[in-house]
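Hey everyone, long-time lurker, first post.

I ran two proteins through the pipeline my lab uses and got sequence/structure pairs for each. Pasting them in order. The first:
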Amino acid sequence: MTSLATPRVGVVLFPGSNCEQDCVRSFRALGAETEMIWHGEKSLPDVDLVVLPGGFAHGDYLRTGALARFSPIMTAVEEHAAGGGLVLGICNGFQILCEAGLLPGALRKNVGLKFICAWAELRVENADTAFTRRAQPGQVLKVPINHFEGNWYVDDETRERMVANGQIVLRYTANPNGSLEDAAGITNDGGNVLGMMPHPERACEALLGSEDGAVILGSVLDTLGLSSATSGVR
């Protein structure tokens, strides 16, 4: 790793992904270097953050994220996360992270069994994470959602532990899909993996209706910059 370099973001491309270019555009606008990574690769390039974008990986056949979980690149993503590396899964990427066991729980079909494409308001429940450091506790962000299976579920014991640990990082102010705990975004125990159903990469320009997504994406880059300044390496 180079010293004090610009944060490098790797965006994984699965067959059926459709938000990868949005992620690349938004992270570049925020000052990061980005690189696309094909799902068939067996290793990651020199990146600080791995992003699993939204879309319909492998056509969402069988179960959302179930096939993508076995893509060759996922072994490297799991190793990256196990070593403390940052991972962000957005929408379909969130589903893949759950299927891969990098995040607890599963995403079920929305209550009402309807696909939802709308703006959502997210309340920041934990601003002391690698993904929310730009936010204030209780701050409400306007970020769009676009999914059919965003109804997050987990067993009661795990839910209670996650709530106590502050792992329910983002909550819907008006739950659109039935997600347990009104969860819109959750982290793993270590706080270095975030899965969220809303699309922050689609809310980074005022022209698109909101710049609030930059709070999330920019927080990650801030975290990487702080890590570099503290350790001298990335």
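...and the second, right after it:
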Amino acid sequence: MTVADSVGALRVLETSQAPAIYFPPGDVSMELLRPVSRRSVCEWKGEARYYDIDAGGTRCSAAAWAYLDPDPDYRQLRGHVAFYPQRVDACFLGEERIEPNQGDFYGGWITSDLEGPFKGGPGSRGW
């Protein structure tokens, strides 16, 4: 089941991380997302809110997040939804199936044209 499909997604680059892909809410099947109580704070973007995905009888816990009221420098991200590729069955950029970054904290999308190392694996969170 496809949860999001877009030609207008935003690719966000952060230091030592694989890019995160943020989908416009109109390109996401929002009825499949269930808000959860989890929150986190990015020192640049602000507070992130998390969502479970309920699709095809499967629940993916805290597999998506969004900044509903980001810092003004990141206002383009308002309401856009990003996904943890390591928490869903598969993610694609075009025809390429991406590799998720290691670990459970970062939601990076690794494509064949990227070279690491990337944050996410054991011992890399504090780079």
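Reply from user beta_strand_b:
Welcome! Quick read of the second one: The mean pLDDT is 93. The first strand starts at residue 10 and ends at 12.
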